[in-house]
Write a structure and sequence with these properties.
With about 450 residues, this protein is α/β, with parallel strands linked by helices. The chain has 17 helices and 14 strands. The protein folds into 3 domains: about 160 residues, Toll/interleukin-1 receptor homology (TIR) domain (Rossmann fold, 3-Layer(aba) Sandwich); about 200 residues, Rossmann fold (3-Layer(aba) Sandwich), CATH 3.40.50; about 50 residues.
Length: about 450
């Protein structure tokens, strides 16, 4: 699929980067005006030709109306180039995936065009009103906010574009491949793909580096205990961070302890494990650890993972999560050549089967899992704005069930169902009729190869 990204560059470059990253992982083609080579031709005509050549348009609008082409350059002195791109797409029947900034977002004051051009307000609002006549998505100042529904919107748009399957029909919920007659089902791969988590982690690291903050960064991954957290982190190591800019070497350090012992402080335990894994030695304090990491010329980015299992926290989940955050808050400033990213893998056990927990719920007490989820939400609110230890809570890892696989097979029945039996599906899912995403991904990849 060829996807045209329509936006105002002054304020939405980071958001366009997110769209490009998702398209890259889908192996689709992004058409972004930042990538165009100068050819001396009028830009309005170039934009129109690009719209004609694309399959889908992703449109983003915040608080800038954008460039208004004059009449001598193909415009009308009133309509912005972004609005013109939207109108061309509609006239040509191209699917548009529109996003508007959430009015509650904390947007930088200098990016409100109305401050320098008060007369632009009515036209900008008229554009948004036209977009709201259809179904629109919303984003915030955080470019990662696009990830929750972006691929859903792209898949829905791709279905409108359509494609021909092996039997000459367009399968429901399928996206036609541009090579031959093969059909790639759309729904279950979205459920299985960890794009939202991996992309948000990647962009959190990228933005952290760009801001020049010499502090550690915390990213929290959470989900059921059977969600294969470790394979996800390994995928991050093997794929996500390798797409970082050249020259930014990295090293992963997997910490083994599930939680700090009650007799030890977080600082003592995490420092000891970092020193053992990275330096093969001990350090008396965090300042010494940073100094020796710099002396040993450890790669620029060090990713350490801290596994936590709710059932082993003994009712201390909130204390432990806050303790980890507090440890990194007190960590000394890092040299410009070093960045430490702490990935906390927090595993829930659902449903909770403990007798005391069941009795507590009968009397209105919140479950341990609910308390842990609330703690994560509260930490994210505080952590996003914390200059001493920025913290991001990634989207929850979600299981794949028998109904998901059956729905996926139904949508691709003509091309894939004959290779799969109920016995095979049960073997993948096990007796609980659920399986971690990575297990299902491996099964599907083997199926597709067959």
């Amino acid at each position: 699929m060829r996807v045209f990204i329509s936006y105002t560059a002054e304020d939405l470059k980071g958001h366009a980067d997110v769209v490009q990253d998702v398209l890259r992982r889908l192996e689709w083609i992004a058409i972004d005006h930042r990538d165009w080579a100068p050819d001396g031709r009028p830009s309005v005509g170039t934009c129109e030709r690009k719209i004609k050549s694309c399959d889908i348009v992703v449109l983003m609008i915040a608080h800038r109306y954008g460039w208004v082409p004059p009449r001598d350059q193909g415009g009308d002195d009133e309509t912005s180039i972004t609005w013109m791109e939207y109108k061309w797409a509609r006239e040509l029947g191209k699917p548009v995936v529109p996003y508007i900034v959430d009015e509650k977002a904390r947007w930088p004051a200098d990016l409100y065009e109305i401050r320098t051009n008060p007369g632009i307000g009515p036209r900008l609002e008229a554009f948004k009103v036209e977009l709201r006549k259809g179904s629109v998505g919303f984003f915030t100042e955080d470019s990662g906010s696009l990830l929750a529904k972006l691929q859903d919107g792209l898949n829905a748009a791709a279905q409108l574009v359509g494609g021909i399957g092996a039997n000459g029909n367009v399968p429901a919920g399928a996206v036609s491949s541009r090579s031959g007659n093969s059909v790639r089902p759309a729904k279950l791969p979205y459920r299985c793909d960890r794009i939202p988590q991996a992309s948000l982690l990647r962009f959190a690291v990228k933005q952290h580096v760009q801001t020049g903050v010499r502090r550690p960064l915390i990213c929290m991954v959470h989900g059921r205990s059977d969600e294969a957290h470790q394979p996800f982190v390994e995928r991050v190591e093997n794929d996500t961070v390798t797409s970082a800019p050249a020259g930014s070497d990295y090293q992963f350090c997997y910490l083994s302890k599930t939680q700090p012992a009650q007799s030890e402080s977080f600082a003592t335990q995490i420092r000891r494990e970092l020193a053992e894994k990275l330096l093969r030695d001990e350090c008396e304090d965090d300042l010494s650890l940073v100094k020796r990491l710099q002396e040993r010329q450890i790669p620029m980015r060090v990713f350490c993972t801290v596994p936590l299992r709710l059932s082993e926290c003994g009712g201390r989940a909130a204390q432990i999560l806050h303790g980890i955050h507090h440890y990194w808050q007190e960590f000394p400033d890092l040299p410009p050549s070093l960045l430490i990213v702490c990935i906390v893998c927090f595993k829930f056990d659902e449903p909770e089967a403990g007798m005391l927990d069941r009795m507590g719920r009968m009397f209105g007490r919140r479950s341990i899992t609910t308390q842990a989820v609330n703690t994560l939400a509260a930490l994210e609110v505080v952590g996003r704005e914390d200059p001493r230890a920025p913290l991001y809570v990634l989207p929850k890892l979600i299981s794949v069930g028998a109904a998901d696989i059956d729905r996926w097979l139904t949508e691709a029945r003509d091309s894939l169902a004959r290779y799969v039996t109920d016995v095979e599906i049960k073997a993948v899912l096990g007796r609980h009729q659920r399986a971690p995403m990575d297990t299902v991904i491996s099964f599907l990849e083997g199926l597709i190869r067959t």
